[in-house]
Each structure stands twice: as C-alpha cells, then as structure tokens.
Design brief:
Strands 3-2-1-4-6-7-9 form a seven-stranded parallel beta sheet, sandwiched between helices. A two-stranded parallel sheet has the order 5-8. The protein has a single domain, classed as NAD(P)-binding Rossmann-like Domain (Rossmann fold), CATH 3.40.50. The protein is globular. Helix 1 crosses helix 7. The chain contains nine helices and nine strands. It has 283 residues and is of the alpha/beta class. It starts with 7 loop residues before the first strand and ends in a 7-residue tail after the last helix. Strand 2, helix 2 and strand 3 form a beta-alpha-beta unit.
C-alpha cells in the first residue's frame, strides 16, 4: 500500500497527457514528485513554485543508464520512492502486415521493456521500505483490440500480464500494483505523439486498418476523456484502502471492457463441451 505521509512519486513521461497532469496534481497536494521526460526542458514549468519538493530529471526509459540515474537521484534527494508511475509510452498505427520491424521493436522497447526496467530499478527501494505502489499505464487496448493498432495492443496485453504477475508476487511484500486502462482521452496519443508505418497496402485502405487510421486522426482532440479527471482518479485509487488491480478510465473504456467480457463468455459457453472433452476421461 502507498505511504500516505508525504509520499514521493516518480512519474515517467511527464511532457504531455496523463503524466503531466498527474505530476501537477501530486505537487498541488503538497507531495513530492520526480518529474521526468526525455527532454526535461518540457517539464520545468511543472516544478516552478514547488521548491525542493519537485525534482526534474531527463529520462528515456529505453536507456538503462538513465533509468538507474533517475532512481538513484530520486533516492538521494528524497530518501524513498513511494509510487512509481510507468506512464511513458506511445501508439503506432499499422496493419500487422504493414508493420516495420525496427519501429515495432522500438515500440516494445518503450512500452514494455522500459516499464520492466523501471520497475526492476525501483523495487529494491520499495522492498527496503516494506511498502510502495507501482502504477502501470495500460489501456482499454490492453483488453480489447481494433484494426491498425495491433502492435500497440501487443505491448499493452504484455503490460497486463506482467502487471498481474507483479501484483501476486509483490502483495506479500507490502507493495501494490495498479493497472490503469484509459479509453479515448484528449491527450497527444492520437495526435503528434503517435507513430505510423510508412508502408500502406492498398488492400487495407477501406473498411479495415486504413479506415481506422483515418478515424483515429479525425477524432484526435475531440475525445470524451479529460486527462485532469483521469489523473485525479489515479490518485483516488492510490489512496483507497481497497484499490483495484485494474482501473478503467472513461465511459467508453467501461463499455468496451464489458463488451469484451460478454464476447469471451459467449465463446467459452458455446464451446464448453469441446473444451472439456480435451481432458483424459475421468477414472
């Protein structure tokens, strides 16, 4: 469970979106925050007026040296890390056939392996304290899939599985795990932060991945989700006596998650006899 007495939050990816709004709210509460971004000049404004309670650091989560430095500096200045928010990440638009190998590997390096590296660097600190909370940014795309974002879904499904195991492993040590699953929000995810494959195959142009690419661009900036309210929801969950393992953010995410559960249940029930028939006969 999170230490509620002047906690220290280490947040990755603070230049825009959830990370930025969360860092601002943490500092407004009078707590301490390690505010990180690949370009720290983009986040210095968040720290203004908060004195020694704010520490701005450069951090590319794909750099092991920068990960290690950020954790060491956080402990040096604040003596502890109570909450790690693995927020850094981005999207990638491509049909599976269109995916570029280097770009896909880079996506997994940030969204999955960067998250793992951060957790592995912070966990010795939290184990020494006997408490802590790791907040892993997933997505409704970690539960439900669409055309054109298959590789992104792959990274978030990985985050879901890794986070579930972490939660089981860390609970006896007094460390919690919170998986955050936003739906569509007015962040830069679908705008200037998203990457796309340069390969575009004509067969996917209509009614499939190409159509989804178009819809994603058109909806950017008009999504229903408010990043400030989402950041507050994360804080509320962190402070709860009974925090969830998964925190859905936004009405759209809730609807999609329930639809996925119904879809899975339908397949499970319809094929129940075939499924059970795969076991050796009883006796």
């Amino acid at each position: 469970m999170m230490n509620r007495s002047d906690p220290v939050w280490l947040i990755t990816g603070c230049s825009t979106g959830f990370g930025r709004e969360l860092a601002k709210l943490v500092l407004e509460r009078g707590w301490r925050a390690v505010i990180t971004a690949r370009n720290p000049d983009q986040v210095t404004d968040i720290a203004k007026g908060h004195g020694e309670r704010a520490l701005v650091l450069p951090l590319d989560v794909t750099s092991h040296a920068q990960v290690r430095h950020a954790v060491d500096e956080a402990v040096r200045q604040f003596g502890r890390i109570d909450v790690l928010v693995n927020n850094a990440g981005y999207g990638y638009l491509a049909a599976i056939e269109e995916g570029e190998d280097d770009a896909v590997r880079a996506l997994f390096e940030t969204n999955v392996f960067g998250l793992i590296d951060m957790a592995k660097a912070v966990l010795p600190v939290m184990r020494g304290q006997g408490n802590g909370l790791i907040v892993n940014a997933s997505s409704i795309g970690g539960l439900s899939s669409f055309a054109a974002t298959g590789y992104y879904h792959g990274t978030k499904y990985a985050v879901e599985g890794i986070s579930e195991s972490m939660a089981i492993e860390l609970k006896p040590l007094g460390i919690g795990v919170l998986i955050v699953e936003p739906g569509p929000f007015r962040t830069n995810w679908a705008g200037r932060s998203i990457k796309q494959s340069a390969i575009q195959i004509d067969a996917y142009a209509a009614a499939t991945a190409g159509e989804r690419r178009k819809q994603t661009a058109e909806r950017s900036g008009s999504q229903a989700g408010d990043p400030v309210r989402a950041a507050q929801a994360i804080i509320d969950a962190a402070l709860s006596d009974t925090p969830p393992l998964r925190l859905l953010l936004g009405k759209a995410a809730l609807g999609l998650a329930r639809k996925k559960l119904e879809f899975m249940r339908g397949d499970f029930d319809a094929w129940e006899s075939t499924t059970i028939g795969c076991d050796f006969p009883a006796g």
